């Protein structure tokens, strides 16, 4: 799979494009060299044949047919290797002179240039070889063939063609290998940036992209991104500090104000004034709850993903206890409250934080589900993960807002008239992140327009008892040794 992903990278595709352009250039260059080399050698052979024909024509004009025959015989005698080929015959194919015994099949009934094979049928005693010749008519009804053995020339052409083919193959292989190596090197550095980016997106804001100190393009990009991250973290910390300071500083005077209002509520005798004071106390409680939630979220986000304080928690039992607490509230709204809980499931976490997370989700489900609606609570296990799921048949959340509901103070438009401060799901998200969990939000009844409902699915890592696992491994090793001793 890694090789396949490597081949899909833009770097490798760019290298492949360069390889195609480079290979095409090399092919055109080698083709031009071959064309010029082979063409030159062929032209040189033809010029040699033409020169011999010119010499024979001059002898024929000066000495006649007998002189032509004599010259051909002399040339054949001086060339024992038969590099030059001659054949002079009458119009009835009667041989007069030459080192060929008969006409090649390619020369039957035609003149001009021909290519043929020297073999036994032509009186050739050696192994078959390639030849090139020119045929023309001589006055008096005679036919003359003058040619050259071009077998060495063809062998040289084949060697050049083989060299070109091997050169192209090696060029393509080296270009492909170079493209792969370049792509691999580039992909590694990009993957480092991607891995660091993913960690930052998961909340590890202290992560930074490593550099090699080469000051190349990737180092400059990494430094710019790191500076950008430093600036973002600085601004976020500033905003968080301001909001946390406001919440902390206002909580004390609000508590005093709330206590004074409660004291006033107990002292007034007027029913109307008592109602106004009770409403003021309720509003103060709502403000205090908002500030307390803000401060708790801030503490959780500052705490990060540390697992130092996490302990084994029976999540199934914890969810069951929360359901018992909220079951009466659901009954008041005539809601169907279904539980599918495996109480043996255990996770590693902070019991108080997990209970807060579970309570917030169940409370939201009851709050946003109409009367006679349904609520389903599930706790199950899949391999090494634990699934906690809350589903309802309430008003639901539009698709374009599902990724926003875990933001602070964000509330879906249709639920703004209901009581709440928009911090409950932010707290859920912070608790899930501390416990290395993931959250998935979807419709409980997809396609239903009026009440599509909402399904919140939180996946947490399952708790593994390390001591029990070590004892299990030791027991398996002991059993294996006993079996080996018995077999021995």
UniProtKB/TrEMBL annotation:
Q: Where is this region: Disordered?
A: 469-488
GO molecular-function annotation terms?
phosphorelay sensor kinase activity
One Pfam family hit: HATPase_c
Show the ranges annotated as biased composition (Basic and acidic residues).
478-488
- Asked whether the keyword Coiled coil is assigned, the reply is no
UniProt subcellular location: Membrane
Its chief place of residence is: membrane
Record domain HAMP: where: 184-237
UniProt keywords (A-Z) are: Kinase, Membrane, Phosphoprotein, Transferase, Transmembrane, Transmembrane helix, Two-component regulatory system
Q: Which PANTHER family match?
A: HISTIDINE KINASE, SENSOR HISTIDINE KINASE YKOH
- Name of the protein this chain belongs to: histidine kinase
Organism, as annotated: Marinobacter daqiaonensis
Which lineage ranks, top first, belong to the organism behind this chain? Answer: Bacteria, Pseudomonadati, Pseudomonadota, Gammaproteobacteria, Pseudomonadales
